[in-house]
Write a structure and sequence with these properties.
Helices cover about 15% and strands about 40% of the residues. It is an alpha+beta fold. The protein has an 8-stranded mixed sheet, covered by helices on one side.
C-alpha cells in the first residue's frame, strides 16, 4: 500500500461496532477504509489531512464506545520524527514511551509518546509498512504508557 508522504493529524476512537462506525465514516468521508480488520479500521485522508483509526471497544466495555483512545500526528520520515522528538525534549516535556520498529494496529511504525496534564496520550509516528498482525510484543497501556502484560495495542485505554 502506498501512503502519501505528508504530515497528517491522527485521531484514534474506540468503537462499539467497527462495522457501524466504518459505514458512518465511509458515508461521511465518501471514502473507503485504507485498512480494515474485524477489530480495527483506518481511514487515511488527504483532504483534510487525517488518519482516523477505529478500535473495537473491549468486551464488556460497551460504555467506552466513542471514547477518545489517543491523538497523534503521522509524519513523512524519520528525520521529521527525530526533529519532533528533539523539540519536545528541549521544551522540557517527558517522552512517555519511545517505540522504534513497533508492530501495532496492523502496521510497523517508529513512534514516541507524550502525555498531557489531563492524561491524554499523544502519538508521533512514521508508518513503515503494513503488518499481518495487530501487535507484537508488549503493548503500551493507559496514560502512563507503561508496558503491559498481554492484551492488544490500540484497545481502549491503550495506545498505538
Amino acid at each position: 500500500m502506498t501512503h502519501t508522504q505528508t504530515a497528517r493529524m491522527h485521531v484514534s476512537l474506540n468503537a462499539k461496532s467497527i462495522e457501524a462506525s466504518v459505514a458512518f465514516y465511509r458515508a461521511l468521508f465518501g471514502a473507503e477504509p485504507t485498512k480494515q480488520r474485524g477489530d480495527y479500521a483506518k481511514f487515511t485522508l488527504d483532504e483534510p489531512g487525517l488518519v482516523l483509526s477505529l478500535n473495537a471497544a473491549a468486551a464488556g466495555a460497551e460504555a467506552q464506545g466513542g471514547a477518545l483512545s489517543h491523538l497523534g500526528f503521522q509524519v513523512a520520515g524519520d528525520d521529521e520524527l527525530d526533529a519532533l522528538r528533539n523539540r519536545v525534549t528541549r521544551a522540557g516535556l517527558t517522552i512517555s514511551l519511545d517505540e522504534p520498529g513497533v508492530t501495532c494496529c496492523y502496521a510497523v511504525q517508529n513512534k514516541f509518546w507524550v502525555t498531557d496534564p489531563d492524561g491524554n496520550a499523544w502519538e508521533f509516528y512514521r508508518f513503515l509498512e503494513d503488518a499481518p498482525t495487530h501487535s507484537v510484543g508488549a503493548p503500551a497501556t493507559g496514560a502512563g504508557l507503561e508496558p503491559a502484560d498481554g492484551g492488544a495495542c490500540c484497545g481502549p485505554s491503550t495506545c498505538c
